[in-house]
Structures are given as structure tokens and as C-alpha cells.
Specification:
The protein is of the alpha/beta class and 386 residues long. The chain folds into 2 domains: 128 residues, Aspartate Aminotransferase, domain 1, CATH 3.90.1150; 246 residues, Type I PLP-dependent aspartate aminotransferase-like (Major domain) (Aspartate Aminotransferase, domain 2, 3-Layer(aba) Sandwich). The protein has 13 helices and 13 strands. The strands form 4 sheets. It has a 7-stranded mixed β-sheet with strand order 2-10-9-8-5-3-4, with helices on both faces. Strand 3, helix 4 and strand 4 form a beta-alpha-beta unit. The chain is globular. Bound molecules: pyridoxal-5'-phosphate. The site of pyridoxal-5'-phosphate has 13 residues, from helix 3. The site of pyridoxal-5'-phosphate (PLP) has 13 residues, from helix 3.
Length: 386
């Protein structure tokens, strides 16, 4: 089919030409003199994205999942207990990783589409008199259900209970797109990946660790080697890596950060909110529900739209791809067939989001959903007109 395939999955996201071109380079010597002039400003810009003064950013070859593993293995000890909630596929996968690493994970199950169960957390943490729970794990933006959690409220709860558990946050589909305040939320380790808000291909696990977390990592004893924070940090201080680094991806990250600084982080967050609202208004106009149970949970980076009984959402995703050259996300695990997802993060503007909404209408019409054609597009246009 002529024309471009449109990408509206919640990662990987659209790559700006500037970022793509910055990676089209010959191989270069990663141990060339003067690398610190490249590396140190990059780390300093990452601190701005995480909103931290003293946190230590890390960039490892890998994806978001390897960032999870690095966080767990660097900051925890064998047999440690952690608390987490399962409200979607990514919180589920992080919990499963804990189990594989023999971490004792206490799980609060929440209906998918819900958010952090602070009442249950309060009960569990307040009964944990001996402070056996060493960390609380939160998925900031649950990409499978389109739910954004209030991390600040989790920090407030820990403070209120005077509980010393570390706060681990998965910001894979939020950081760089939704405001993230590492220092003021008291986050000990935040994990992200290159293929979402950073507008790059997958391949970099981008994390940030508090000074408290780094101190703990000096003596923690879960096995780790390649992803050891202190090994990486020691060499990074000189501008280099302990092993061969993926220079083209790092050049791409440099350019992505340039673009993010030029636009301004607050402007990026407002743009994401504005575009998300267009998708939410369209969904309401179609008469469909979102998976996110409550407006306070609506995500600015992905909207998960429930389809009516008798419709398989997989057919919408297939039709959009096969007939209209457009990728949407499907439902994962428990919500497979029940919802489809429009990713609206990264390098995106109003015209692109209108393309996504109108294609969703075409595909929904084709699979037999009963709604007024054009209603979502009209609602979105009314919102997007300036
Ligand atoms: C919230 C969240 N966490 C973790 C991951 C896993 O990241 P990766 O696929 O880069 O390993 C994803 C991937 O989509 C995600 O959305």
C-alpha cells in the first residue's frame, strides 16, 4: 500500500527525522579521547528529565525489562520482601521477574484498569512492624490498561507510616512524556526505556538511582554482573563504559534530548495531555468505555478502549493494520480481545492524532461496532482547534 505505515502503538513510538539521521553514522571509536565531553552533558540532561539533582542516571544496553532487573538485583538482598500491585500486564511481568529472582513479593491484585491500592498498601505496610518489606514497586504508567498512578501519593503513604521501604518506579511509558519528579516523590530507582518518550529504537535501558539506593547497592547481595550499577558508574565517571557501548543509539539519545530541551519538558507534558484529551473525547463520543476506571487514572500516553460484547478487539487491530496501514496496540493477557490501545506518546501532533482517531473509526466500522461515523473525529476536532 502506498504511503507510510502509521504507528500508534504505545512504544516503539514515531522517530523524528532528526533523531533517525543522528544515528546514521559510521562506526566510531568508543574509547576515543574526550568522550567525557559527550557523556557528561548527556547525563546532566537525563537528570533534568528525571527531575533530580542528586540521582544518578544509568544507560545500559537493553530494554525496559533489563532496567527492572538491574533495579531489583542492585538494590535488594536474597530473600528480601517487596510489595507490589498487579493491575495490568507490565506490573504483572515485573512481579513475575521478582519471583524468578527469588524475591519474596507480596502482591495486591487489582481489577485491570484500576490503580495503586493505597488503602490495602496502608494496611499491609502499617502491619509490617519489623520493616520486612524492603521496597514498594509501582508501575507509574500501566501501558496495557492506560492507567497512570499517583507516585507522589505512594511516597506520602510511606512517609506517613514512617516506613523505610525503598520506592521503585517503572516509568517506561511515562518518563519523558508525563511529568516525573524523582526527587520530590522520593523515588529510589526509576526505570525507563529508549523506545517510548525518548523517541528512539528499543535498545537502551535508561534508569536513575537515588544516592540512598546507590549506598544500598554497595552491599546488597543479589547476584548481578553485567548490570552492576557501581561498575558502570565508576567507568562512566571518566566518560566511558565498562564494555563496548552502542554509540549510534547514544548519538540518537543525544539528539532526542536536544529536541526535548528545545521544546521544553513542561511543553512536552502539556502536548501529551492535550493529545490524550482528544482521544478521550473521541472515545466518549463513540459511546465506548476506557479501561481506566476513573478519570484521575487516565493516561496521557496511551488510551485503552473497551470494545462492546460480541466484538473481538483483535479484529480492529488487524483491520487497521491490513486495510489502513496503521498499527494500534491490542489487549494483552487478561484483556486480550476486550480492548485496543491507541498510543499517543513521543513525536506526535494534532494532525497525527486525528489520523489515529479516524483510522480507529474506519476499523471499528468495518468490524461492526455500532457508533455514529465521524462522531469521534468531530469531538477531537472541537478539542484540537485552537
Ligand atoms: C510500563 C512498561 N514497563 C515495562 C515494559 C517493558 O519494556 P521493554 O519491552 O522495553 O523491555 C514496557 C513495555 O512496553 C512497559 O510499557
Amino acid at each position: 500500500m502506498p504511503g507510510k505505515t502509521s504507528l500508534f502503538v504505545p512504544g516503539p513510538t514515531n522517530m523524528p527525522d532528526r533523531v533517525r539521521q543522528s544515528m546514521d553514522i559510521s562506526n566510531e571509536d568508543h574509547r576515543a579521547p574526550g568522550m567525557e565531553k559527550f557523556w557528561h552533558p548527556l547525563i546532566s540532561d537525563l537528570r533534568k528529565v528525571f527531575e533530580t539533582e542528586s540521582g544518578q542516571p544509568f544507560v545500559f544496553p537493553g530494554t525496559g525489562s533489563s532496567g527492572w532487573e538491574a533495579a531489583l538485583t542492585n538494590l535488594l538482598n536474597k530473600g528480601d520482601k517487596v510489595l507490589s500491585a498487579r493491575f495490568g500486564q507490565f506490573s504483572h511481568l515485573w512481579i513475575e521477574m521478582c519471583k524468578k529472582l527469588h524475591i519474596d513479593v507480596e502482591v495486591v491484585d487489582v481489577d485491570w484498569g484500576g490503580g495503586t491500592p493505597h488503602d490495602e498498601f496502608e494496611k499491609i505496610l502499617s502491619e509490617d512492624n519489623n520493616h520486612e518489606i524492603k521496597a514498594v514497586l509501582i508501575t507509574h504508567n500501566e501501558t496495557s490498561t492506560g492507567v497512570t498512578n499517583n507516585v507522589s501519593a505512594t511516597r506520602d503513604l510511606l512517609n506517613k507510616l514512617n516506613h523505610p521501604a525503598l520506592l521503585f518506579v517503572d516509568g517506561v511509558s511515562s518518563i519523558g512524556s508525563i511529568k516525573f519528579e524523582m526527587d520530590s516523590w522520593g523515588v529510589d530507582v526509576a526505570v525507563s526505556g529508549s523506545q517510548k518518550g525518548f523517541m528512539l529504537p528499543a535498545g537502551l535501558a535508561i534508569s536513575c538511582v537515588s544516592q540512598k539506593g546507590l549506598e544500598i547497592a554497595k552491599s546488597s547481595n543479589l547476584p548481578r554482573a553485567y548490570f552492576d550499577y557501581h561498575d558502570m558508574m565508576k567507568v562512566n565517571e571518566t566518560g566511558y563504559w565498562p564494555y563496548t557501548n552502542p554509540m549510534p543509539l547514544l548519538r540518537g539519545l543525544r539528539e532526542a534530548l536536544n529536541m526535548m530541551m528545545e521544546e521544553g519538558l513542561d511543553n512536552i507534558y502539556s502536548r501529551h495531555l492535550f493529545l490524550a484529551q482528544a482521544v478521550q473525547k473521541a472515545t466518549q463520543a463513540w459511546g465506548l468505555e476506557m479501561c481506566a476506571k476513573d478519570q484521575s487514572l487516565y493516561s496521557n500516553t496511551v488510551t485503552a478502549i473497551m470494545v462492546p460484547e460480541g466484538i473481538d478487539s483483535t479484529d480492529i487491530v488487524k483491520t487497521a493494520y491490513n486495510k489502513y496501514n496503521t498499527s494500534f496496540g491490542g489487549g494483552l493477557n487478561k484483556v486480550a480481545g476486550k480492548l485496543f490501545r491507541i498510543g499517543h506518546l513521543g513525536d506526535l501532533n494534532s494532525t497525527m492524532i486525528l489520523g489515529a482517531i479516524s483510522t480507529a473509526e474506519l476499523a471499528m466500522y468495518d468490524v461492526g461496532i455500532n457508533f455514529e461515523l465521524g462522531s469521534g473525529v468531530a469531538a477531537a476536532i472541537k478539542h484540537l482547534k485552537i
